[in-house]
């Protein structure tokens, strides 16, 4: 197997990222893969890419994108003004599942957070994703909070 590298996503990567987001029952119901790609995706990418507190990353092997995640760096007053890292939208392309890429991506994200001076790293996972919960717990994350969302 060739080496996997992680890098900042570019606009050219957006369609592939959206395809990975749509490749599960939850994502299939909320993403739109029609041509051309909905302008909202490119607008969101532009906002993410322009914000120094955001990092949309892709995992690449042999020129092919096989994973993605987004990091958000959140300043806050709690914990003595500590910076925290938020990991979101972790996806591995179907052909690359089961090779340890998810662990590699999370390890990379944690190191990025550490390098930025984060005191803690957090993530959320849909309550229905029990396999993902076990995966994150194996990587040292604790289910310490109960999250709530409200669709607007």
TrEMBL record:
Transmembrane segments: none annotated. The keyword Transferase applies. This is GNAT family N-acetyltransferase. Keywords: Acyltransferase, Transferase. Its EC number is 2.3.1.-. Residues 4-152 form the N-acetyltransferase domain. GO terms for molecular function: acyltransferase activity, transferring groups other than amino-acyl groups. It comes from Alloyangia mangrovi. CDD domains: NAT_SF. It is an enzyme of class 2 (transferase). The keyword Transferase applies. InterPro entries: Acyl_CoA_acyltransferase, Bact_Acetyltransf, GNAT_dom. Pfam families: Acetyltransf_1 (PF00583).
